[in-house]
Design goal:
The protein is mainly alpha-helical. It has helices at about 10-60, 65-70; strands at about 90-95, 105. It has 2 helices and 2 strands; from the N terminus they run ααββ. Strands 1-2 form a two-stranded antiparallel ribbon. The longest helix has about 50 residues, at about 10-60.
Length: about 120
């Protein structure tokens, strides 16, 4: 009776093929994740800035905090910064001049630079 099974050489060839496929797929996967986070960050900033503008248009003043946008139902919830994975790292920009309120603009509090070389804090 002959035993059936794979030889060590056959197993090594299969493992080498799997390793080759992983070396091609894993870098693309992580680049795609980073690109997705940056896209989400840009969209979140656009939505919050739009809510600030609508609040200002409706009330004539800027909100006192980002939570005021949620309380006034301009936002359902305060979005999570996809880079820091927290909702309390947003950086608020105060209005200049004699405008009332405390939130004129919002920026990401994430450290580091994006794939295009710009800083997340400047978006």
């Amino acid at each position: 009776m002959k035993l059936r099974g794979f030889t060590l050489v056959e197993l090594m060839v299969v493992m080498a093929i799997i390793a080759l496929l992983l070396t091609l797929a894993v870098p693309r996967y992580f680049n795609h994740l980073e690109s997705s986070r940056e896209t989400i960050l840009k969209q979140d900033l656009a939505v919050m800035r739009d809510a600030i503008d609508k609040y200002h248009g409706d009330t004539g003043s800027y909100p006192d905090s980002l939570e005021a946008l949620v309380n006034a139902r301009y936002l359902r919830t305060l979005p999570v910064d996809p880079i820091t994975e927290r909702d309390d790292t947003w950086q608020v920009v105060a209005p200049s001049g004699d405008e009332t309120g405390a939130v004129y603009d919002v920026k990401s509090g994430a450290p580091g630079v994006a794939r295009d070389g710009s800083s997340y804090a400047t978006w």
